[in-house]
Amino acid sequence: MATELYTANNAVTVRLEGELDHHAAGPLRDRIDEAIMKARPDVLTLDFGNVSFMDSSAVGLVMGRFKLLSAMKGKLEVVGLSPTAYRMMELSGLKTLAKLEMKPRGN
Amino acid sequence: MPKAMLINEMKLELESRSINESFARATVAAFCSQLDPSLEELSDIKTAVSEAVTNAIVHGYAEKTGKVYITARIYADGMFEVAVKDKGCGIPDIAKAREPLFTTGGADRAGLGFAVMESFTDKLNVRSAVGKGTTVTMRKKITGKSGG
User: Are the CB atoms for B122 and A62 separated by under 8 Å?
Assistant: First the structure.
């Protein structure tokens, strides 16, 4: 999974790309957590716009980052979710905890 | 309701390594494409298979490596069936395991595997025996590009 990660103005943005399953989630989690611990950002944005496939491992990844971030009073934003991905995030109850944003249909 | 006639079948045997998760779902999806599914149906099948195979790897075999057996069947009425079997530790309480958000998988598992399989297919059946293994069988009617 190719992923871009950058930090600016107390915000960390992660542009996820490709297939996000259990196999990809482990190494990705380590990279994101390293950036969080280093920057201690006010906001973490996970951009799913270029994710071609995801299963509930991606939801687990988001939930785990939410917990870590909450412990340091940061906010979590999840953007670019496909309708299917949004449905899966909803199943977890994340909607009430983090800002979830769906990508317009047809994108 | 009696099952429609079986018209095609494939079997796949894999080691329980996480790198095989994408291979498993892509292979099952390629087989399913014989039914001319819509993109959404295909994505639902891929997701459900990914959940089942991940469960076999993460829970069934946990720290050890074993074989994951996948059987996919196409029926004359457009029904697609996938069974994912492991010979791992088994599930002591299936009802509990199927509850959304319940997990024994640690901090970064969402506990949504069965909930996703259930919501992305038409029927989910789980058979398990402690110490012997688990078989998850999913069925989904493929209505195709026109119906999807």
Answer: no
- Are residues A57 and B100, on separate chains, in Cβ contact within 8 Å? no
Torsions phi, psi for B20 (to 5 deg): -80, -10
Whole-complex ipTM: 0.91
Nearest residue in chain A measured CA to CA from B101: A92
Domain count, chain B: 1
Q: Does B33 touch chain A (CB under 8 A)?
A: no
Chain A: give the shortest CA distance to residue B4, in Å: 30
Alpha-carbon distance of A45 to B114, in angstroms, equals 28
For residues B82 and B72, give the distance between their C-alpha atoms in angstroms, rounded to a whole number: 4
Indicate yes or no: CB of A22 within 8 angstroms of CB of B115.
no
Asked if the structure places residue B147 within a domain, the reply is: no
Task: Give the pLDDT band of residue B101 (cuts 50, 70, 90).
Answer: confident
